[in-house]
Amino acid sequence: MELRVILPDEEPPQTLKEITSALRAAKLKPELQNKDWGDWIHFSEQVTVISIASTRGLTSSATIEYEEDDWDFVQKLLKVFSKKGWMGDDQDGPYPL
User: Fold this and answer.
1) Which fold, 2-89?
2) What pTM does this model have?
3) Domain limits of the chain?
4) Tens-digit pLDDT profile for residues 47-71
C-alpha cells in the first residue's frame, strides 16, 4: 500500500537530514539510501520504506510504502511527519495527518 505525504505549498522544503533526524528522535531507526533512481529511507526490521523525492538534499514530498500489517508503524511515521508540518495527499487533495 502507498500513502503520500507533502509539505504545504507555503512551507519551504526540508532537508533529508531534518527528516531522518526527526525519525531518529522518535526512535524509528531510519537508514537513508541514495540510489540513482531516488532516495529511500529504510527501517531495521521493517518492511515499510519511504521513497522521498529530493533535489539537492531538499524535499517536500514522500511516499510511504507499507503492508497492511505495518499500520501501527506507519502511524508512528505519520506522527513524525505531522509534527514537522507535513500533510497527507490523495486524489481529493491535501488533508491533515
Assistant:
1) Double Stranded RNA Binding Domain (3.30.160)
2) 0.93
3) 2-89
4) 999 999 888 889 999 999 999 999 9
